[in-house]
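Lab notebook page, bench 4
Experiment: in silico fold of construct C2
Operator: M.H.
Input chain length: 147 residues
Purpose: comparison with the prior construct
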Amino acid sequence: MNLNITKTIVFISAFLVLSSCNLKDKKTTVVVVDPERCYYPILRGQELDVVYHLENTGEHPLFITDIHVSCGCILIDESSFKVLPAGGKGFIKIKYDSSKNIGYVKHYVTIYANLESEEKKELTFDLNVVPNALYTRDYEELYEERN
């Protein structure tokens, strides 16, 4: 009797594992609202919260397997993205720290998922990081330093 119960449990476990693998292999489509963004300038050292809204427009669940960012100054809130069911909506939340940048910056966020037409989806945002005027030397100070 115990042998039959063990065989049944093994069969059910194998079925669940195989059926979940098949679900991840099915491709879907996703629409990102405003994937290319331009933000107003911010002061060096400020943080910028960026939220990308996603909509699964396919017939199968969307599984995000990995997210790569172009800079170590970008942190991903991993609790913000989950498996999106067909027709579901979700978001990816990131935080940009501008303390090590100055001037024009453009950053990329690459999403790897089970997408039909492509292996990845690329999102971008750009902005200008400006120094605080209280710490910027004017022309007279620079001239005095040279002499």
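Observations: Residues 2-25 form the longest helix (24 residues). The CA atoms of residues 69 and 109 lie 5 Å apart.
Next step: discuss at group meeting.
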